[in-house]
Structures are given as C-alpha cells and as structure tokens.
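ingest -> validate -> predict -> emit
validate: passed (alphabet ok, no gaps, 712 aa)
predict: started
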Amino acid sequence: MACQQSRYHSFSSASRLQPRPSGVTIDESFLTEDKSTQNRKLLQKRRTLTGQFSMGGHLSPWPTYTSGQTILQNRKPCSDDYQKRVGNCQQHPFRTAKPRYLEELENYLRKELLLLDLGTDSTQELRLQPYREIFEFFIEDFKTYKPLLSSIKNAYEGMLAHQREKIRALEPLKAKLVTVNEDCNERILAMKAEEKHEISLLKKEKMNLLKIIDKKNEEKISLQSEVTKLRKNLAEEYLHYLSERDARKILIADLNELRYQREDISLAQSPGIWGEDPVKLTLALKMTRQDLTRTQMELNTMKANFGDVVPRRDFEMQEKTNKDLQEQLDTLRASYEEVRKEHEILMQLHMSTLKERDQFFSELQEIQRTSTPRPDWTKCKDVVAGGPERWQMLAEGKNSDQLVDVLLEEIGSGLLREKDFFPGLGYGEAIPAFLRFDGLVENKKPSKKDVVNLLKDAWKERLAEEQKETFPDFFFNFLEHRFGPSDAMAWAYTIFENIKIFHSNEVMSQFYAVLMGKWSENVYVTQKETVAQLLKEMTNADSQNEGLLTMEQFNTVLKSTFPLKTEEQIQELMEAGGWHPSSSNADLLNYRSLFMEDEEGQSEPFVQKLWEQYMDEKDEYLQQLKQELGIELHEEVTLPKLRGALMTIDPSLDKQTVNTYVSQAFQLPESEMPEEGDEKEEGMVEILQTALERLQVIDIRRVGPREPEPAS
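emit:
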C-alpha cells in the first residue's frame, strides 16, 4: 500500500513538471528568498501542473522489477541448454524502460538548463536553481526520506552561503593584488630601462676596447713584418757568408795544389834529387799519400759536421742587431704609453675646455645683453678649438655679424657632437613633413664633409630628372633610398640640425633655404647654370686650351656674359678673381681655379662674389618695384598695378615672365590668372609687404635695361 502511494506521488509529481516558457528568465531574487517562500512557490508550481503523465497512479519499480527476469538459472556455460538460453536471450533482449517520473524530471532539468544557457545573465548560482527545484520535488514526494534529504540540502546551502561570504571577504584582497601587480610591473619596466641604458654604455665601452685591440693588432702586425724582414736579411747574409766561405776554401785548395806542383817541379829540377835512394823516395811518396787520404777524410768529416754552422762572428753580429731592435721596440712602446697618457690628459683638458667654452658663451650672452660697447673679438681665440691661429683664419675679412655666426657655428657644432639623440618634434601641422616623429631620434654625428657630400648627391639626383614631388618630400625619399626606412628619420634630423647651424657654409645654407621654403629651387638651379655658362664662355675664349686667360680676355668674357652689370661690379668680379689695379692686362689668369671648391663645398671668392651680386641685384630690383608702386608696405596693391610696375621698371619682360612673377606674388596658379584688362583682375589685391616677400623667394632678376627718364 505504501509502495502504491509512493508510485502515485511520483507520477503525480512528474505530471506537474512542465518546462518554463522560452521567453521567461529566472529571477535572481529567488536565490535570496527564505525557505518558506521557496516552498510556497514550489507548492504553487506543483498544484498548477496537470496529471497528464499519470499511468494509473502506479510508480514503476525500475530497474528492480527486471531483476527476477535477468537472473538465469545455474547452468554450465558449455552445455547445450545454456547456449540455447543465451541464444534466446540474444534474440529476445530484456527491454527495461525508465520510469515516467524519472524521464519527466530529466526532461524538465534539461529544458531548464537550456533556457539558462540561452539567457544573457546566466551564472553559476542560477544554474543551481533547476537542481534545487528537482531536489525539492524529491523531498516533497518521498516523505519517508524528507528529513534526511532536507538536512543534506541545508548542509549544502549553508556551505554555499559560507563560501559566498568568503568570496566577498576576498574581493578587497583581489583589488590589492592587482595594485601590487601593477607596482611590480612598473618596477620591472624601470629596471629594464636601467639595464638597457647600462647595456648601451657597455656596448660603447666594448666598441672603444675593440678599437684599442685593433690598434694593438696593427702594431703587432707591423712588428711581425719587421721581424720577418730582419729574418730575411739574416738569411741573405748567411747565404752570402756561406758562399764566401766555400769560395775561400776552393781558393785555398787551388793555392795548395799550385804550391804542391811548384815543389814537385823544383824537386825535379834540383840536381841533387837524382842522388836519393828510389826506395826511400817511394816510401816517402806512399806515406805522403796516406797522410793526404787521412787529411781528406778529416776534411770531409769536418764539412759534414760543421757545414751548416754559422760563424761566431756572424752570430754575434746578428745577436747584437736583434738586441738593438728589441731596445728600439721597448723604446717605441714606452713612447706609445707616454703618448697615450698625454692623449688622455689632452682629452681631459678638452672636456674642461668645452665646459669653459660653454661658460664663456653664457658670459658672452650676458655681456651682450647688459652692455652695448663693441665686442672684443680677440677674446674668442682662447675659446675656439685650434687656438689663435684658427680663430685668425676664421675671422679674417669678416664683420661683427659674420663673426657672431662663426662663433655660433663653432659652439653649435661642439654641442651637436655631444648630443647622442634628438627629441622628436611631434606630428603638428607646423612641423615639416620630413621631421614629423614622436620620440628620441639617434644623432648619426657625420662630419661636415660628409654632410656636404650628401647634400651634393641630393642635388645631383634632384637635377638629374624632372621631379613632380615637393622638395621636402624628395629629400625624405632620397634619405630612405640611401639609408633605408629605418634610418631615414635619424638622418633627416641629423642633417637638418647641421644645416641649421652652419650658416657660413655655402652648400648647407642654400640647401636649408630651399628646404624651408625661403628660396625656390629655381634660385639654386639658375645660379648653377649661370656659373656653368660663364665657365663655358671662358673655355671658348681659351683658344689654346691651356686653362689661362689674359686679364683683357677675362674682362671681355665678363662683360659679354653679364651685359647688365655695371663697371664697378665687373671690377669687383675681376678683383675677386685675382686682378689688382697695379696688374697689367697681359698678366695670365688660371680661370679654372676660380670655379673650384674645397672639401667642405666652399667656393672660391669669385663665385661667392657672383652670388652676393645676385642677391644685391634682387634686393635692388624689388626696391625699385616698391618705389614704382609708390605705396607703403602695409598698404594693398592690385594685380594690374603690380603688372604695370613690373613692365615699367623692366620693359624687356615678356608676358610669360610677368605672369610668373604676378602669380607668385598673389599665390595663384598661372592657369587661373585672369587676362590683362579683365574685370576680375581689378578685384585682386594683396598686401605689398607680403607680395614682396613672396617675390623674394623665387628667381626674380632684371631682363633688360631700364629706359632712361626724359630730361626735364
């Protein structure tokens, strides 16, 4: 009866297990409700479920009801009867099905878990909810085991609550652990940075030591070559003396042979020889021959034993020579150590001199700021590297402004050599495209000659073919092609810092002006073409092709090449080329030397004077333009008025050149320039100072002479 009641409760409970609709999610507040509320909800859920899965109110005893059927009788495994039973069992296997209540519980649990997995906020606590409900069904349906099952459930719930409390208590420790981890990471990064710096210092020290080792190896190789040479000389001397010894022995043997022959002849011619006893003479001859044989054997033995022995005199001489060379080597080593120590002392003095130079520079700035008298430039001779002689060479023929540039170049070059890295300027719009970088950039520290050669190569590549890109973009692409993308930015910063400092260097200053947009490329190109044309004219005038011209020929070539220059300007060029008023016109001039450059790209005074006259002529041309306009710098000028002023001061200008000048002044493309007399042309205005500054950038010069003003 109890069994039937238990079956009835099981199937009735199974009939009430219905899965939650797919759109419903589990309320997390269920986990925090008390036990009475949970029981009330479970009872309500059980009452709402129907009994559609009930099978007559009987609970299946699966799998116990099959035990009686699965137990076979005790039969021998090998008997026929046993095999028949086994065969029947294989043909008709026992079909044991699960109880309906168990299947419904499993289906309910599976559907609840699937719903939790589909939810967006399913957690481990929520995944336990279906299991709690199944366990509650067991507790409510099996009354006999309800106290035990309730105690088990309470024990697990208490343990879970205890673990949750522990987790809440450990949350601050977790946050503290994260903070400690971040601090440790920062310390590790700082240590790595220090180690990286130490590694870089050690690498530099390693390179210095390698250089010292190379020097020592070179000295060792030179000493070894000296020793090899001495050995070779010793072998030659030894062979010489050996040949002399052999020749001497042969000569002695020949002399002995001649003496023996002479004695024999004298004995034969002696009248008393015939009176001797022949037997005695024969015996004496026999004994003499025996002595000769014994002597010959001894001589051969001596030759065999001492044939390769060096004479003592030669040995002592070579030993003395070797000793002298060893003393010379020791002396040279001592001298090298002294020179090395002196070099270290000089390096220390150099560093102290650098510090003094910086101190003097700061004092100089302070003096210039606080005082107005003319500076005493002789003070700089003790500051500039090279002493008074070098300062005298640098200051020769320069005014105060130029001397300031020279001094700044010397100081700036020293500071530039001391820098290992340049700080990046960032990616701002005001920063040139080839300098846009954030971080530290390595200073390549090239020599002044290397920078000049690199700039010359850049100009050659720029002028070799037509370049459509801007000059700064071409410059950076040239560095990428020459040094690779990884080092292009470092070379860009290095070259920029060098050309920014050396204003007195012609190549660097011109390249810096073009790179920063102060001049257009046409200024540089036109100047180079002018110099090349002048050299060509002088070469044509040199009919003998000797590289020499008379002063009269030189004057004629200058006037024909520069017809717009005044007599005073022609005389300045001739004086820069080496002509003096006291010189005769028949004196010869090596005109090719006027166009030569030194290793740092500096031109001769003749080419420099051409450049100075070009800049003066441009300034004078723009000043005449301003005077022709008759307005102040801050006032506006219209496009037709500027066009008319250009045609007035230079009537030989063609229309294309005028349009080029006007488009530069008003920053308009030539294709968009309005035609002369157009109404649109009258509406275009620009500040005069801005227009003149823009014209200063391009290659603007006089094309023909200005018409003389009519006499009043």
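Confidence is low (pLDDT under 50) at residues 1-35, 46-94.
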